[in-house]
Amino acid sequence: MDETKIFGNRLPGRALKSAERTFRRYARRFAFSPDDSPVLGAVPMGPAYDLFGVRKLEERSPDGGPYEEIDREKGIVLGTIRMGFGHYRIGLALASAARSMGLTPYWMDLMSFPDTAASRTIDYLEDLYNLGSRVSQRFKWFDKYVWEKITSDMAKRLSYTARDRALARLFAPLLGGVPRDIPFLSTHPWTGHAAVKAGMGDVVTLIPDNYPLAFHLVEGSVHVVQTPSAYMGYRTLRDMGGQEELMYALPRDDIRYVGHYVDHEIVSAVEEDCSYRLRRLRDKETRRFLLTMGGAGAQARRFADIARACKGAIEEGKLALLVNMGDHAGRWAELRSSLDADGIRYTLHSDWTETQAFAQEIRTGSVSGVHVFLHEAFFAAVYTTNLLMRASDIMITKPSELAFYPVPKLFIQRVGRHEAWGAIRGSEIGDGTLETASDASLHQALRLLVEENDLLEMYIGNILRNARAGIYDGAYGAVHLALERRNRT
To answer: In this structure, are 49 and 61 located in the same domain?
Structure first.
């Protein structure tokens, strides 16, 4: 592969030099060695193993251990980075789909090797991203003039890929122990670049969001997208050349539209879950709103405002709030202080077994008041939202990866311009609102969704039609594509 070009388009010399300097800086800072290639073994991945049979790939300890060999016939590797919740959530959706198809999912997290330059580099960059996300929600000027540009303009140009291909030299050694002929699904471009650099030939790159960014492109893999507009944007490399016209497009064979990446358990139960929502509407039961914190923990103040605006409806039994704080203990302390100051009572759930039982119970039972969920384990922090959305009438979320799930959604302010098109997608296919960026628009939408039925009825009806059309079947489609590539002659 010619490192000076991407899909036939020549990269600027200054971008290539900058990428090389970035690689050398992190290589020196975190003591990179190309020989840091761990011997991998497979072990059950905690709760994800219990639910989806996921095995985690980790470095074998010197004293041995109960490691399994990778099943090269039925195995499929999910390359991910524990950066935020979105990429991790896509990985869980793939694991769920793969399990439903009789496959064994193997979890390869590039942040699971803390003594390597790869994991240290990613951890450092994640801290910077999370800090920017939180600051953007506190200072409007920073959000408008800095963060919106960083999350869209900078990552949009093809020249940006030079940096990530250079960083792949740090990451690739971690994949030295992965069989080269096993299907590899990448939920983050860094894992995709690493897999290609390591010589893997069956790499499928899952592109999140709905806004074309060159950041997500991985030459040498086949890309899958969730929407037709994303397909057009990536196929044409829309506006990725800056002021220069690009002479070559993304090859047709390198991209597929598959639909939204959603877990098998949720997709297979859409009809049943929507029937419960319609019954609760008909019987005028307490309306359930699910608030879900993002991986960067940037919405604590917005959650406090929502709880304050809904206090009267909560006390009257019209509304129940289910608030998943993920693993953000610090953000929970901030929200708790606001709830206490406003006199809003709540119940805290932090035991994973109890949370699962609660989510199952309220699917058919009743619920009232405010329930807050906080889990230290990353899997529980993320997957609690998946469990609760099935028992919720409306999910309140920023338009991130959750924008693509089949549950009625009220979209609050995005965290970065790249998320804006998630709300556009949800509102256009009719399973969610427009983005409510201002307090006034949010409060008005809240009042209508609590007091009236027409919006919610419309969203439920559209979810049912979308499901029958296969719009939420993207996780199955991605896995099928990976198997096709393995079996191609």
So the answer is: yes
